[in-house]
Amino acid sequence: MEAWVRNFLEEFGALGVGLLMLVENIFPPIPSEIVMPWSGYSVSQGDNSFIAVVAAGSIGSFAGAMFWYYLARWIGKDRLSRWIRGHGAWLTITPNDLDRVESWFERWGSVAVLVCRLVPGVRTLISVPAGFSTMSTLRFSLMTAIGVVIWTTLLAVIGWWLGDNYADLAGPLSWVSTLVIVGLVGWWLWRLLQQRKIRLQEANS
Questions:
Q1: pTM of the predicted model, to two decimals?
Q2: What is the distance between the alpha carbons of residues 147 and 58, in angstroms, rounded to a whole number?
Q3: DSSP state at residue 47
Q4: Which stretches make up the VTT domain (predicted)?
Q5: Domains in the chain: boundaries
Q6: Among candidates 122, 95, 103, 117, which has minimal Cα distance to 187?
Q7: What is the pLDDT of residues 67-93, one digit of tens each?
Q8: In principle, which of 18, 20, 115, 152 could form an S-S bond with 56, CB 3.0–4.6 Å?
Q9: How many H helices and E strands in the chain?
Q10: Sign of the C-alpha dihedral, residues 74, 75, 79, 81?
């Protein structure tokens, strides 16, 4: 993955940064923890402008977040809840879970959007409750913009600062992202088993 990202960015420069960050927010397996530090490293080598890569990365990330926000807003909570009733078992989600997420989001709102934009593995997911909640587009856009600029700038600065020693941190950053995703998958499997156990108990009672 890292070699492919490096080759892509070497060929397309800042435009490639924006494209990969857009895809990363729509299809998370392409981690920003590789894209942005490598972009910062390319700045240290004189291949790109720091402002250009941060701007491109932020715009791509912002566009990806807005995609999920508008999709959730278009679907709406009622339609999503009906779909979950019929197909939510494999996602280990129930309509009650959706209500709890909405209540939690209404409580934390802007703070949740801003903080979660800095957390690997959930940065994309936070756009969904924001979309079907009462959060305004302006408020969501502002918090998302602040979050993505902080995140992309931080990672780019790390890559730029490390320079030729970029490889020393590329691996650990990638592992952090991988561990978070593995943790989320493990949590999903545990929930799946718990729900299966409950259904078997109900069937036998």
A1: 0.72
A2: 9
A3: S
A4: 30-160
A5: 2-204
A6: 122
A7: 989 988 888 878 877 776 766 555 555
A8: 18
A9: 7, 0
A10: negative
